[in-house]
Amino acid sequence: MYNPMTPEPTPVSAWVSAARRLRTEGDQHGLMLHIEDPNGFLPGEDEVVCLVDAFLREHDKCSVSTVANTIFPAALDRGDGIIALTERYMQVYERRMHRQGEWGRYFQRMVAWPKGSGKDAGTVNQLSENIATLRAMRSGEAKFFGNVTEIALFDPARDLRKKMNRQCLSFIELKPERDGDVWRLNMMAVYRNHYYIQRTLGNLIGLGRLLQFIADQAGFDLGTLTIQSTHACLDPDLQRGEVSELLTACEDPTVHNSGLSRGVSPKLIVAK
Fold first, then answer.
1. 90 closest CA partner among 70, 106, 68, 112
2. Residue 223, φ and ψ in degrees, nearest 5
3. Res 73: pLDDT
């Protein structure tokens, strides 16, 4: 299951390389991406995001920004910390997103993991707990540990019996490191399954934003992002010929810029 791709500088370049491999070689197990700048965009990569976004909208699928926002709701972040962000998000979640029988959203599980039952029922804000731990290490108030900050997304009680309509992102590890006076925060995320057209690009963008937010809140520099998809494929519910045309366009987006024809703003999609 060790199946690494060559490290790439940005989420978009990593996605293009891996999607091209899936087109050529078919489904992969243990596919691993390593991204040096999880919040970066090279020249022309906003065009790639727009191409994918337009393709998804034309096929009545969730947009790139919608997928990214399930991991980190960038529009709700006003720079006032995780507690305030959580309060705003949960108000929106309960009013607009919460549906009986659905598994929820990734960010909701990060900030409101259920604990206890009955009179003792409550929630754990995994992000605020991890940020507090990282801050204490960064300030010297607590001993440095490189292996104690993690975020659970898979819940056996809610997910194990389901075969469909469940989470794909199972676990996130936050890995702080010290290099002299430089403190960096890295992330590794494990997915049980990845549909590369509908989900993966948005997932990578969302994870990069989440890592940047946690690093900023804890006083760390942005590190690297590693993703392992224990199963990865090109979406079986999309026409293979259309997917192949999309990927060809993404390899040279300056020539194939039809993704902008529907009025999709690159800045709107890739805004940090």
1. 112
2. -100, -145
3. 96
At residue 119, the 3 state secondary structure works out as helix
Helix, strand, coil in percent for the chain, rounding step 5:
45, 20, 35
171 in helix, strand or coil?
strand
What are the DSSP E strand ranges found in the chain? 3-4, 31-35, 113-115, 122-124, 149-152, 169-179, 182-191, 194-195, 221-229, 232-233
Output the CA–CA distances (angstroms, integers) from residue 183 to 47, 91, 174, 219, 223, in the order listed: 33, 34, 13, 8, 9
8-state DSSP, 74: G
pTM summary value? 0.91
Divide the 272 residues of the chain into consecutive groups of 10 and give the mean pLDDT of each group.
Answer: 94 98 97 98 96 97 95 96 97 76 82 86 95 97 95 88 79 96 97 96 98 98 98 96 97 59 43 46
Coil/strand/helix, residue 184 = strand
| H-helix or E-strand spanning residue 12 | helix 11-25
- Is the separation of the CB atoms in 185 and 215 below 8 Å? yes
The residue among 78, 83, 146, 90 whose CA lies nearest residue 114 is 90
